[in-house]
Amino acid sequence: MAAQALLRAASVVLLCWRAATAGTCFSDDFSSIDSGWISVDGDWKWSGGTVDDNVGNYGEGHVLYRDADYSDGYLEASVSVSSGQAGLLFRIADMPVAADYINNAGQMYYCGINLNWVRCGRMNDAWSEIWRYNTPIALGQFYDLGINMDGSDFTVFLDGAEIGSFSDSSYSSGGIGLRTYWGRGIYDSISYEAPGCAGSNSPFVYVDQEMSWTDAREYCRTHHHDLASIHSASENAEVA
């Protein structure tokens, strides 16, 4: 039987079915320094459950997770900007061993936020913007920035709400990382979940936010498989 994931929508507890095939899970709350992270430029600091990089009014910073090689799945980070922009690198096709790789034929996607927008693009020895969503971003406030990757189709989420999508077939898999550009970015957590992610003994994942039934169904279908429900006392016990 496929695994299930728990979702709360308004005052109704719903279940969504997760894909049966197990995939990769990854998460980091930055409570300690994971040796898998490598800084290729910038001044990254781990402190009090966050990771912080301040490159000031000029320059950029990048820290990458060395063991990641992900294709389809959902990547999300809790990120804030005090100035400039900050965001997520994903499907990094050529994990670097030296600094300044982005300006040295670095191949990857990037989605980030700044004061006025969320935008995503492709890097290949140069930056090419693919998609942009104009919206006010409060400086110093944490936002959950998420990207669902499904082949060449990408859906972007901000605080759990879908804000747009784009398509590009340049890179099919690769590493993940964090980026700041001409400013200061702070990250509170990061997670990646492949379809059927098998990282827990529990068949349920609790999503701590309220939404309408329609939004809940869309969330389940985007991140997992589809809505489901509890049909037995044993299933109910697993939720409890």
Structure description:
This protein folds into 2 domains: 1-23 and 198-240, no CATH class; 24-194, Exo-inulinase, domain 1 (Jelly Rolls), CATH 2.60.120.560. Helices cover 8% and strands 54% of the residues. It has 2 helices and 17 strands. Strands 3, 4, 5, 6, 7, 8, 9, 10, 11, 12, 13, 14 and 15 form a 13-stranded antiparallel beta sheet that branches. A hairpin with a 2-residue loop joins strand 12 and strand 13. Mean pLDDT is 81; it is low at 1-13.
Quick overview of this protein structure:
Residues 1-22 form the signal peptide. Residues 35-182 form the 3-keto-alpha-glucoside-1,2-lyase/3-keto-2-hydroxy-glucal hydratase domain. The chain contains two helices and 17 strands.
